[in-house]
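Quick one:
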Amino acid sequence: MSYLKKSYRPAECFIIYIATELGDNDANANSLLESYLKELKEKFIPLLNTTIKYKDNSEVIANNLVLLFCNSMCYCHIQKEKESHNHITLNLDIILNN
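Output:
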C-alpha cells in the first residue's frame, strides 16, 4: 500500500495524470481538462506580458509552460523528487531563456 505513504508529489500530479487518462475516452473529462489548461495558459500570458523579454512571444511561452506543467505532473509519478526538480528546472531554463 505504498500509495498511502507520505509523498512529495503534489496533488496536481494525480489530477493531471488521471484527467489525461480519462480524457482519452471520456468527452466530459477531456472538456474539463482542456478548460483547466486554457485557464492556466490565460493566467500565464498576463504575467509574461509584464516582462519585455517575453512580451512578443507570451502566447508561445505560455503554451510551452502549460505543456511543461502537464509533462512534469505525469513525470513525477515515475521519477524521484530530485530528478523531477531537475527536469522542471532544466525545461524552465530552456523555455524562458531561448
